[in-house]
Amino acid sequence: MKILLVEDDLELGRALQSVLQGEGFSVVWVRMAADARRLLTEAEPDAMLLDLGLPDGDGIDLLRHARASGVELPILLITSRDSLEDRLNGFGLGADDYLIKPFDIPELLARLRAVLRRVQGGSSTGVWHCGELQLDEKRMAINCAGRAVPVSRTEFSILLALLQKSDRVVTRGELEDRALNCSESQTLDVHISNLRKKIGERRIRTVRGVGYMIQQ
Asked: What is the value of pTM for the model shown?
């Protein structure tokens, strides 16, 4: 697995490069946004760890550029910006996770592996799992603890969005964009409530002020 590490701090960059290589990752480390933008296509990384405060630009602009260009690799933001507004902005622009500095290296590794598992763990087959919950995109079928769960098309879309990004928060805006349309008579909260009744109250966790996430 190749990781594109975008971090201008020399001490932190060297430490992360060493740790990641020790865990078996191939690491391409750059300190400038311009280099990262070029290497997104040239280096063909499997994931990117992206600092936001870079000498030649804002990492948020690089995130925006990557998603607008169709880059789908997992992007984990590592930053000292800890406000709710910053986190919402990052998730809204397509970040897969958001880790606030200073952080513990084991947590970074766990989050990185989680986003990599999400990419590998269902997209090729169209079958997504979270504990005893299973969603089959091709058959439009959901099973929970061995029993079929009847859901509406909107509920299916919401659950698919949550499973595709399990282990991270999916913002309300993301869910509304993917699952609801202008003729929708029910709110997102109503659909979430209905889903909880069908698959278990604790499987969908509310992250206050941000959105929702799926859990086992």
From this structure: 0.60
Q: 102: which residues sit within 8 A by CB, 6+ positions away?
A: none
Residue 183 has a pLDDT of 43
pLDDT tens string 70-117: 888 899 999 999 899 999 999 999 998 999 999 999 999 998 988 887
| Rounded to 5°, angle at Cα 15 from 12 and 20 | 120
Kindly report the number of other CB atoms within 10 A of residue 207's CB atom: 14
Q: Tell me the pLDDT band of 42, cut-offs 50, 70 and 90.
A: confident
Judge whether residue 45 has pLDDT over 80.
Answer: yes
Full set of structural domains in the chain with CATH:
2-120 (3.40.50.2300), 127-214 (1.10.10.10)
Tokens at 40, concatenated: 């997104």
The two tokens of residue 168 are 């991270």
- Which residues, in sequence order, are CB contacts of 6 under 8 Å at separation 6+? 30, 31, 33, 36, 48, 49, 50, 51, 54, 59, 62
Q: List strand residue ranges (DSSP E) for 67-139, in order.
A: 75-79, 97-100, 127-130, 133-136
